[in-house]
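Researcher: Structure for this, please.
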Amino acid sequence: MQRFAPIALGALLACGLAQAQQPDEARAKKIVGGSCFLCHGMEGESASEVFPRLAGQNAGYIAKQLENFKSGKRKSSAMAPMVEALTPEDMNALGQYYASRPPHKEAARDAQLAAVGQYIYQQGNRFSGVAACTTCHGPTGAGTHTLPRLAGQHAAYIVGQLKQFNQRERTNDNAVMHAIADKMTPLEMAAVAEYLSGQ
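Model: Predicted structure, token format:
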């Protein structure tokens, strides 16, 4: 009987973990259904290029951005009222919920522009001093726990964020992005964004 104890203990722990996750998912679904879905969709798919796709986004990154919107570290007149009542637990639950949704996948609209973007993303541009994006965001644009998933994101949204970094309008993330975006031309921004949108 004793040799089955680790299996039974493992099953109990797994069951307890599943039960602990269910309230978080229920909490997240309630919040998403109350307001987030209006811009980002119930599954984080966001049909409008104005709003970012959140499906498959890194959980820690989502929670951090929500906290930054609430504290005012990241400015947004649209997001500020949406996060006003959120607790840290709500933010973590939303991060886990959207991270668990399948990421969006579609081909880039402009293959030639995407090819230029792929080169810049992977190699940088030694002529203008733009560093390769892979250094921080990884070879596939999947990011990390604290860095955003860029793969499959709306191209227009990525361009908008790069412009905000370039103009110092977005200051909640590290200064590395300011230095990189500062050197990027509008064509380079559009090309990298087009490439990432199809990943």
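Researcher: Any notable elements?
Model: Residues 111-197 form a domain with the Cytochrome Bc1 Complex; Chain D, domain 2 fold (CATH 1.10.760.10). Confidence is low (pLDDT under 50) at residues 1-20.
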